[in-house]
User: Fold this.
Amino acid sequence: MIQFAIKRLMLAIPTLLAMLTAVFVLVRLVPGDPAAVMLGDQASAESLAAMREQLGLNQPIAMQYIHFLGDMLTGNFGASMTSGKTVLQEVSLVLPWTLQLTFASVLIGLVFGLPLGVWAALRRNAWPDYVGRILSLTGLSFPAFVSAMLMLLVFAIHFRWFPVIGSLVDGGFVSQLHALTLPALNLGLIMTAYVMRVTRSSMISVLGEDYIRTAKAKGVRPMRLVLRHGLRNALIPIVTVVGLYFGTLIGNSVLTEIVFNRPGLGKLILGALNTRDYTLLQGLMVVFALCVIVVNIITDIVYGLVDPRVKIK
Amino acid sequence: MKAIGLTLRMSAVAALITLSGVSPWASAQDSERATISVSPGIADITSLDPHRASLIGDKGIVAEMFNALVRFPPGSSDPAALEADLAERWESSDDKKVWTFFLRKGVMFHGGYGELKAADVVYSLQRAADPKRSSFSANFTALEKVEALDDYTVKVTLKYPDTAFLGRVSNYHGGQIVSKAAAEKLGERYGQAPIGTGPFAFSEHITQQYVKLVANDQYFRGKPKLGAIVYRMIPSDSARELAFASDELDLMLGKREQRWVERSRARGVTVDVFEPAEFRTLFLNRNIKPLDDVKVRQAIAASVNINEIIRYAGKDVADGGCSIIPNGYQGLDCSVGPYAYDPAHAKALLASAGYPNGLKLKSVVSNAAPQLPIMEIIQAQLAKAGVTLEMEVVDHATYQAKSRQDQSAIVFYGAARYPGADYWLTEFYDSASAIGAPAAMSNFGHCSVADDAIRKARVEADPQTQLELWKKAQVQIHDDVCAIPLFGLKQVWAKAASVDYGYVLHGALNLQPPVTELTTVKRDEQ
Assistant:
């Protein structure tokens, strides 16, 4: 399995290189001058020139690219142009927040989505199925920032059960979990809708298979039939969706982070883009790409675990 | 790979700290004194170095940590009210070219960096004037020599008499005094861990979350009544409002809209609307044809209905301009007044300029809330006179970049500066500041008609003659239609009922209400 992971990581290097080059070129194509953003609109031409020199922006693009690749290959992600902190410091400060939110919302999605999907499949075209389908459609069509605002208005402002600011300055484990509840629910409900739909359709397909009929004819108990013979065989598409959604959440939960005032990778990427912080943006893209690659590898490994027919080579 | 491993390990440690609730600054908390929670509406800080901090939010935080030789009294943005700060008193020569400042004794820097001495002042002013270390070097061009006569006396020699000199060494845009030892020791990191003499000292900055300042009990004006200030990074207007409504914020940046002000006041929120207004101007770029023709510029000026725009912005937050210099600035002359709105005259002017069927212009517009809706109104007004304004709506950084590359025929620009005519005229109307010039600043219109008056006024020692020169410059710029002054948009902040500033708020040049050693917050549980 370790060999498999290493092999997958090696295969990801050309993808990573292409992505790095694309990021390097694209961020420089966008109009805007990091020096001007940092120094503000009163900076003299001389001050701007001095800052560009300090940031290495006055070097030819080819030279900047060579330095950039060299730094990346040696594991030096550089320092943020605006804060001066290293990219690794910046990432390490926000990554825990992103991981907490992502894991919590995926967990909510699985805890609610799986049983609801199975139930809807078992009661196909009956009221539980209709209700489940309507709810999942609502979950999928509701923009995350709207549901976030509604949740805050109801649970934080009206009932005062939760804080509005998700990033607490102090507080223990319970306080942190408390503050995590609403943002995790907000993303978790969308995840629930995804998981439920995929589980339902996958289960319907599996429940129509010959081996299910055979098992039923042999007198296998209903619970065992559904969980062992049905759900286990229906898991592959569910794992795919969860893996994809997990990767997407890492960078795309920015709206939830903004509304709930939580730090996160998505918000950091947005900030770096607004300030034209090239080094931070490049470093973040590498981290983001690596996260997605790791999630994909884990997804492949899970395929092998849930379905012995999938061989990990 | 090693780096990734390190990141993951650091993240794991940070996650454990986060979840375990061991806040790194918890031990520094002052349990007896309240902490005020403030949101200046920014996503994060850029630099807290007073010679670099030029962005909204950054400079407000800097203002609590630093002092200058003189200061605007808390709550005032009036240059006539400048008072002693680190300097107990000062003298100037008859020709206003030599200034001597006598420093307070016993003023201590934060973090054990010792007593403030004349060497720190010399270092700070030289640093402020150095383009490699300061964003405000253009404000210090008059500086010829700064020297320490002894530990508590500083002599400043100017190249020419500068009537605004006291303002340049005030607690605004580069005038603050830094610790020489700290700045030299920390180098580039000084902006992330600044050392000043103010009532609050830097404690920590957590990316995207907060900046925390703690009370400086050695402050020379007395021990602060608050224990700490936490600046929360909440850029979303709605999220900030919700946090304020749930009592998680004591002080926050509001929306600079009449509707918001009225709605909030109706709900019982204390809303402060204060100076300085950020003055909005439409610069007409004569480098882009046909704006090189004064008749076309006059036609555009006659097409813009400023009163309609002010009505949209709102009576409490918007303040109509009477000159190209913002209201309240030293040297303002209202004798010519704003341009008259007359679409029929505008059409006639266009016809006489050779455009009987109207013309098309291109403008790069920021998608920022204070700009885009106003430009949409102006677009509609210009259309009535036959001018089609093609707007390229982009993010703010792109708008800044493209406007500074001469890509916009009409540039909408809003700014607040030190309230003196020279600052404004030099930056926006002197041809030396024109876009593309070696010393380019923000002269988007490439105006040069008043160069002589602006430059003579700058070095004029006689206040009366100086006022006349500034008046002449304003009339010349008005007649040449370099720009159309629109209105000033004031600062809007909401304050919890529990907050007492400790002063009366009329203005704040650093664009947020100062939290001083006298500010208090009454908490129910305390």
